[in-house]
Write a structure and sequence with these properties.
Elements (H helix, E strand, L loop, with lengths): L1 H27 L2 H8 L8 H10 L1 H4 L16 H4 L2 H10 L13 H12 L3
Length: 121
Amino acid sequence: MKKYAFARRGLRIAAASALIGALLLTAACGKGKTEENAKPSLPAGPAETIALYRSNCISCHGGGLEGTMGPDTDLRSVGARLTEVQIAAQITNGGQLMPALKDRLTSQEIDKIAAWLAALH
């Protein structure tokens, strides 16, 4: 009888483990898609320009241009507010919170980012 009780307990443990595993698997299913969909994405643009943005601008302006340091850092429709020349000047010389990037980026790189951002309305 003890052998039978031990076997039943083993089956219960196995069933509980299987149930927990199934629940964990179900909970994780689709998690990556939800997080990926929730991440802001950058507008389409030349790969080199996107890479420049990611390595120089994303920490303050965000993964979807939404801005991380207040409304002035939101670039989603910056082309409606500023011209390409004004955007290039801002990148080059900086501003109130923004550091000047003229010592970090070439004028050609600044022009590429400015052209890309100016197209955003």
